[in-house]
Amino acid sequence: MKKWLPRFSSTSTPLNETVNRSLDKQVKLAVTGLSRSGKTVFITSLVHQLLHGLGTTTHLPFFQIASSGRLRGTKAMPQPDMHIPSFLYDSAIEQLCGDPPTWPKPTNGISEIRLAIRYLSDNPFFKHLSPISTLYVDIIDYPGEWLLDLPLLELEYEQWSEQIARACEIEPRLSLSKEWRIFLNNLNLADEADETVMRQAANLYTDFLHQCKQHGLSLLQPGRFTMPGDDLKDAPLLKFCPLLEIPQIPQNTYNENSLFAEMKKRYNSYKEHLVKKFYEEHFSSFDRQIILADVLSAFNNGHATFVDMRDAINMVLKSFHYGKSGLFNKLFGGLKIDKMLFATTKADHVTPDQLPHLETFFQNMLATSHNNAIFEGVQTETLALAAVKCTQAAYTMFEGKKISCIKGVPLKSDKPVALFPGEVPPNVPMPEEWVKGRFHFVEFKPPRLANVHGGGLPHIRLDRALEFLLGDKF
Amino acid sequence: MKKWLPRFSSTSTPLNETVNRSLDKQVKLAVTGLSRSGKTVFITSLVHQLLHGLGTTTHLPFFQIASSGRLRGTKAMPQPDMHIPSFLYDSAIEQLCGDPPTWPKPTNGISEIRLAIRYLSDNPFFKHLSPISTLYVDIIDYPGEWLLDLPLLELEYEQWSEQIARACEIEPRLSLSKEWRIFLNNLNLADEADETVMRQAANLYTDFLHQCKQHGLSLLQPGRFTMPGDDLKDAPLLKFCPLLEIPQIPQNTYNENSLFAEMKKRYNSYKEHLVKKFYEEHFSSFDRQIILADVLSAFNNGHATFVDMRDAINMVLKSFHYGKSGLFNKLFGGLKIDKMLFATTKADHVTPDQLPHLETFFQNMLATSHNNAIFEGVQTETLALAAVKCTQAAYTMFEGKKISCIKGVPLKSDKPVALFPGEVPPNVPMPEEWVKGRFHFVEFKPPRLANVHGGGLPHIRLDRALEFLLGDKF
After folding, report:
1. In A, residues 253-282, which contact B (CB 8 Å cutoff)?
2. pLDDT at residue A34 in the model
3. Which of A157, A386, B90, B170 could cross-link with A347 by S-S, CB 3.0 to 4.6 Å?
4. Model-level pTM greater than 0.95?
5. How remote is the C-alpha of B33 from its chain's centroid?
């Protein structure tokens, strides 16, 4: 029988210590990402590091509990929330470590996996009481689109419509939204609501969102339109769209059955049944939040995509503002999350000497929100990392001089190539400097690995992420 | 632009009467059925009759509000519950009335459609106050499997396991469950729960349920195993199964992490998150319940299938018992449903003279439960009906004598045939009388129809169903 979950991967010391359950701790790590940021790979590698990467003290040098030798073993456990789909680690790792290795299929919706990490406590009190403690780590995976829905909670239908209408005045949304805008302009919003018309408008708007996604844009609201899940696909609360112009209707002629009124009702129902529910059922219980982005893809796609990604992250971060005007405080009386990690993934797609630039660039991109979040009591960290390193540093000659490059198998090839991936500017280039072809970071295939479970997967800076996220819990 | 919903299909009288909204009434009709009973066709035809069949006084003679000429028109309206998927009437009627006509695809999960019926009130008081009233009819479609889950609420995991284990001792479940039973017998239930093992056991049990379904069996518990919906497919609460033998574990050695304990936890989580939630969110608001079954298919499949269908319906009906020991009273403080209609569908598959036999047979089959339900305050009715009539009465000669038969296009043919479908016994035959080949009722293609929206679809006794379900509401 094939084992989905490895047994305790015990390290040097035998497991003969007694465990005192009352001292055990628990932490809920929520992982999300803007589209195509490699969320599934990140979680798969994180789990793999914890299951298999703790046996040596050198694989995760910055993750102190591992490098200090206090780890006793990790195993996967039945998850606590039975109504949340399981994160299918087994199938993801099979794809990633198969022959040939492939990137795991992206997940849809929410999923969860629980790990139990046993370690030697160094707390002077506890260590005499019970030398071995357990930290339960619940990793919860959910679509970035759902996070991007949280700001809707502060917006009336009219306000949200205006935001979208403004965004559609500039490219690339101007062209991509054309068909939907023409349809909308031909409607009389005071007419009685007609189900066919509402569905057509919603479908055209959803098509537009799908096209935005293909163009690498991040800000796709409402998030469930592109990720509905089977159970809601045909529900009216997914069959509305924003309006380009809000009709001025005098109070005394307001018709509750008009197209406008019905659109507004559905928007409010969407917020109530989906956005608030997500906050109440899941988000409010998270202890730590990881937000992944793929900044290099924004380089490839140009200035508009970059701006969109920055705006999307900033919009989300506004929700985290504390204080009297804060969203979570106002609506739900607070937020548990005390640490947020922003990570730009695929850091192995640049040469090692460009890594600091990538990190600085990402920090600059988030500067405003970042400061606010610190100010408001959430500790934040910015990192460039590679969950699974699929290139190696190499050198090539350019005009007689050695130049750093990387070597890996491009996604659309079968042979390894050494290439110079381009330089990362430490500061955001001016709009006119984002000329076509200046940036072209290539995607790679996963590395072929021997003895996959003998140690953690190759990575860049995942140990720093682990230290930030879990280090204080041991 | 194609209209999904017809406008008020006004009949003779012009719509110049004032409408007093405060006098409007509302009724929630829940429709469910055992597998392959033709639930989607039933709802589609019901909606079509109400939208298009009320123009003449002869199409629905037993539906008094229609035959009395007091109907003013019906239209589809935006449904009240925005988080429930819409019943896609438009697409169903397109398939049913296409060229060639096809049976609409069955629905998965829950869906809803709202109709507004305007009529002339004959209430001596209201008719002067406001001659035109509106009855809002919400039709809610949900899988019969979910109804079959309600009895679980009264059963502990051990009790339910025992029921299933007993059912698997006789054919056809004995053979169909073989693989699952062998797997289960090789497990040590006191072992620590292993996710792979749990999933394998659940998958084998689910395969078994799918095979039961193919064999025409009705009692498929837990219902969500065969109809999970996308959002829950990989959730732990769908990854358990009943046990063949309950391990005898002394209290002091009970291990909370054992396979047995985890299975039991998941069963309870299934009840809590799915069964109870369905009751609370939906079932508790239903006014009337229609339960469809296809008794003729049970004839075709033999005695075991028939017994299973009878047991399934009886099991469900037990949940409707009122009084101190009643399930709904005990758990939720009551039930709104005051009328239940049991209908055996496809009554056009027998000759007209056999119709009374079919109805008597169905009544006898339900006799016990039926009486109980009346006793407990729910009015019940039993009917044999055809939502869409696809055969016509004809005659053929047999040994020189005229014999009744039916004419239609069999499902697996392109040409109409006249055939003698066999006799329906008014009483349940003894087990040994269900010999192979005695019963063989053929399935037919939908009829080709001209001028579909000029009148209601051809049917058998749908007017009686409408009168029972809605007649008292006008």
Report:
1. 257, 262, 265-266, 269-270, 273-274
2. 85
3. A386
4. no
5. 1
